[in-house]
Design brief:
The chain has 345 residues and is an alpha/beta fold. It has two domains: 140 residues, NAD(P)-binding Rossmann-like Domain (Rossmann fold, 3-Layer(aba) Sandwich), CATH 3.40.50.720; 180 residues, NAD(P)-binding Rossmann-like Domain (Rossmann fold), CATH 3.40.50.720. The protein has a seven-stranded parallel beta sheet, with helices on both faces. α2 packs parallel to α11 and α5 packs across α7. It is elongated and about 70 Å long.
Length: 345
Amino acid sequence: MSAQNVTGVVGPGHGPGGSPLAIAISPVLTGRDAFDAMRQKILDAAPGSRLIPVSAEGVADEPVGEVEVLMRGWSLGGDALDRFVGRASKMRWIHSVSVGVEAILTPVVCLRGLTISNGRGVFDQPIGEYVMTMILSTCRRLPALLELQRERTWQPIQAVELAETTIGLVGLGGIGREVARLAAPFGPRIVAIRRRVGVGETPAGVRVLGGLEALPELLSVSDFVVLALPLTAATEGVINDEVLCRAKPGSWLINVARGALVDERALIRALRDGPLGGAILDAFREEPLPENSPFYRFSNCIVTAHTSWSSKAVLDRALDVFCDNLRLYCSGAPLNYLVDPAAGY
């Protein structure tokens, strides 16, 4: 790893007052209006920089030889990113709007030793609220109640109080901690595993069972298992037959992280034959999820289109994080929210 990755000091840029000569922006939201809305905020943070829109295919309408910084949106995939970085000889820093960076850690990016930062903290609140919405809806039997309404059937259904349940957090980063914060007033038992035991803040009332080796134990005691891990070589396929067979009968799996954390064939078996009671899935190995996916057909499965992160406030927060880092870049100060390429997050 280069010194840049370790220290996060990449500025000042080669433009006016330490600004980058040029900043490339790949799609964050679709449409020219979204780019125009971001322009002034970015120029306020880096006066004199030239802003260059980049398509999802990595194509720009003008030369990119002076690009020092790339703000990468969700749609710029690994191959297109490599092609773009290969043409941007002055590139020094990539900022990922999303938290997950597996698509950024490409051979070209790693070989160049580029500094990488991400949008840590930007999505914690909407994702935490999504998780709590789904947990409460499941406890209160909302899908069944809506079905009874459609059938015009008057039939009371017994619910489960959240205080009677155990929530298992697979990961105690920003999302895991936000779920713990939102859930705490309802009184559930909360257990968790984390990648580095003893490192980082543990929310009050959360019992850490250990590292990934404690995943089967967490599944065995949890009524709701919330996946909030980054996707790395160590976590890919971590939800598999071996751990799912240990799941508490009737429990629910909630994935708001990455689809590749889950062996989907194993999950299908666990939904069809037990022990899982159901799953709430917002991330899949293949997105968009194909129309013939069995997950659409399971009555005990709720499928959403990778939308747990979405809120009106997200784009503004994501842009603020980038612009704050851009000011640090221009001043030569260390950047915030650096990614360790060796660890993958």
